[in-house]
């Protein structure tokens, strides 16, 4: 029995395999410096640390690169749909540079990786290892979106749903961050202005809104979002109302803040 301190769970190893190209040899133990495969892990994924339960330690996770190429995949038959989704979930758990997303507009499954060869290998595994038949679309570059300037936006959500009235008003300020710094949400309001219980719902609305930009629907990166205003009505305000209002305000703020499309670049060194 070994410990996965990354996920605070214990695992049982059924077999240890020494890997030799495409051949595997079962061994009883592995020593420092050995590269092996293990069978039987349930919760562990690539990047997790495995160690002795009596001496727990968490090593630095793998710093995975962001995907740069995407293709749409779809099952050839309805029977393959569930098999493909399960297979892609397993592949995504194995490979930190591989992403799977369901496009809400088209209903397609979009897979992303580090290049066309990377995706070709994964599609090959879908067909060979998981016995699924898939159609593959044309590859396209994975872009990101960001903003060039600061902007403020306010949104009000007021609606009766199931006989219950919901109300929430949110004022946000969006501003650009240094490239590579990621997105950041901050609550700049004192507690007496807006009950703290609604802030997580507002942050969730902002986070989900940034998953799809206003230009071409790519993820939004390197944007700071500050909650600078809000109005609630004690009898009618709800988490749902503030989440939706935050999402609406964030989308409007992205429109006002001069949205910008980012394409991936790669720094290379050529030795002749």
Automatic annotation (TrEMBL):
<dbReference type="GO" id="GO:0003746">
    <property type="term" value="F:translation elongation factor activity"/>
</dbReference>
<dbReference type="InterPro" id="IPR035647">
    <property type="entry name" value="EFG_III/V"/>
</dbReference>
<dbReference type="InterPro" id="IPR014721">
    <property type="entry name" value="Ribsml_uS5_D2-typ_fold_subgr"/>
</dbReference>
<keyword id="KW-0342">GTP-binding</keyword>
<dbReference type="Pfam" id="PF14492">
    <property type="entry name" value="EFG_III"/>
</dbReference>
<dbReference type="Pfam" id="PF03144">
    <property type="entry name" value="GTP_EFTU_D2"/>
</dbReference>
<dbReference type="InterPro" id="IPR009022">
    <property type="entry name" value="EFG_III"/>
</dbReference>
<dbReference type="GO" id="GO:0032790">
    <property type="term" value="P:ribosome disassembly"/>
</dbReference>
<keyword id="KW-0251">Elongation factor</keyword>
<keyword id="KW-0648">Protein biosynthesis</keyword>
<feature type="domain" description="Translation elongation factor EFG/EF2">
    <location>
        <begin position="140"/>
        <end position="258"/>
    </location>
</feature>
<keyword id="KW-0547">Nucleotide-binding</keyword>
<dbReference type="InterPro" id="IPR005517">
    <property type="entry name" value="Transl_elong_EFG/EF2_IV"/>
</dbReference>
<dbReference type="InterPro" id="IPR041095">
    <property type="entry name" value="EFG_II"/>
</dbReference>
<protein>
    <recommendedName>
        <fullName>Translation elongation factor EFG/EF2 domain-containing protein</fullName>
    </recommendedName>
</protein>
<dbReference type="Pfam" id="PF03764">
    <property type="entry name" value="EFG_IV"/>
</dbReference>
<dbReference type="InterPro" id="IPR020568">
    <property type="entry name" value="Ribosomal_Su5_D2-typ_SF"/>
</dbReference>
<dbReference type="InterPro" id="IPR004161">
    <property type="entry name" value="EFTu-like_2"/>
</dbReference>
<dbReference type="InterPro" id="IPR009000">
    <property type="entry name" value="Transl_B-barrel_sf"/>
</dbReference>
<dbReference type="GO" id="GO:0005525">
    <property type="term" value="F:GTP binding"/>
</dbReference>
